[in-house]
Amino acid sequence: MKAMFLILPCVILLSCTNSGANDDVKEILGTDEITQSEQSRDNDLLFSSESKYSRSDLVQKLYLEALTKNEDLRVFHQKINSMDQKIQDSTALFNQYATLNEKYFSTVKTYIPIISDSVLQQKLYSIFKEFERKHNANITSQSSLLSDVYNSSNKLRDRHTILKLLTTIKQMEEYQSKKLPEKLQLENIHSDIENLIKEIEKKIDLD
After folding, report:
1. Given CB 3.0 to 4.6 Å as the disulfide criterion, which of 5, 21, 62, 203 pairs with 168?
2. Using CA atoms, how far apart are residues 101 and 16, in angstroms rounded to an integer?
3. CB 63 within 8 A of CB 143
4. Where would I find the H helices in the chain?
């Protein structure tokens, strides 16, 4: 029962933050509502393999809305998602291989100190040092290629982020030009404050 009470506030908080982001998007785009089907679509895109963003991320929400209105952009977005998955699939086998070897050599180094004979201990250190050196030399090409893959992946991620940011400029420019409030309301409240200050000053005497 206690666990239920802990879960409920989290659910409410997530709902509120997502609702707040949706309200912001509706305000910027001038839409009355985001339908349930659109919300499901947003969730699918938001939690796709490429996305690690908060549900309250306004840039991400605007970008997702842009995807619904631009077929070319949506296709390109799906290509990037597919590439992310390909990267994971293509690197998984070598990463598993490399990790298993690292575990092996790390474990070996915990065994050697157990040997009580210091001469034998040093011989084992030499044997496994050379064994590990040969292994590392044997995987040089694959390790270099893996590094190249990750560097290219980072470049792709950077450019995808730039694409998102530039995509939202048009949406924000339109909002900024159409929704900029007139100065009158601010001028009026400023005048009211100044008038009230004058009234108060008439009633106080600090001299």
Report:
1. 62
2. 47
3. no
4. 2-29, 36-46, 58-69, 71-111, 118-138, 140-179, 184-203
